[in-house]
Design goal:
- This protein is mainly alpha-helical and about 150 residues long.
- Helix content is about 80%, strand content about 0%.
- The longest helix has about 40 residues.
Length: about 150
């Protein structure tokens, strides 16, 4: 009996799948539009990456170029300072340390501000204040005055 029901169910599922496939083919039968795309466009479409990946790569290349320019400028300054007196080199180093520290402090402030902002947004989202009618408030007050536990009611 179980085998017979199982076989019958399996056959029914196959018929349903065939019917769905026939219906889908019938719907697509009237669709005849086929766009004319050049071979170059087809080739370019195959090798296209997502926009976020391309923008991430472009940003990475831009940052690398900026870093390279900074490095060259710093090397040039160091070369010039090496020719100058040692006092100027120490002064430049102290100034760089100070500016680096100021930048770290600024980044820390911005990070804290962002964390506060996110916390405020979370707090605003998580506010549930039900509106209670007078009868519900009266029941609550009476319940609070008794020593009865909620699950004992």
């Amino acid at each position: 009996l179980v085998e017979r029901l199982h076989t019958s169910n399996h056959a029914t599922e196959q018929r349903i799948a065939q019917m769905k496939e026939l219906k889908a083919r019938a719907e697509l039968e009237g669709c005849t539009f086929s766009p004319q795309i050049s071979a170059k466009a087809k080739q370019s479409a195959r090798h296209t990456t997502h926009i976020w990946e391309r923008s991430r790569e472009a940003l990475k290349k831009k940052q690398e170029a900026i870093d390279e320019l900074r490095k060259k400028k710093e090397e040039e300054e160091n070369r010039i300072l090496a020719k100058a007196s040692p006092t100027k080199a120490r002064s430049k180093e102290a100034q760089e340390n100070w500016s680096r520290r100021q930048q770290q402090l600024q980044e820390s402030r911005l990070r804290r501000q962002e964390e506060r902002k996110m916390q405020l947004e979370e707090d605003e989202e998580c506010t549930f204040r039900p509106e209670l009618n007078q009868k519900s408030l009266k029941i609550f007050r009476q319940f609070r005055q008794t020593s009865e536990k909620p699950h004992e009611r």
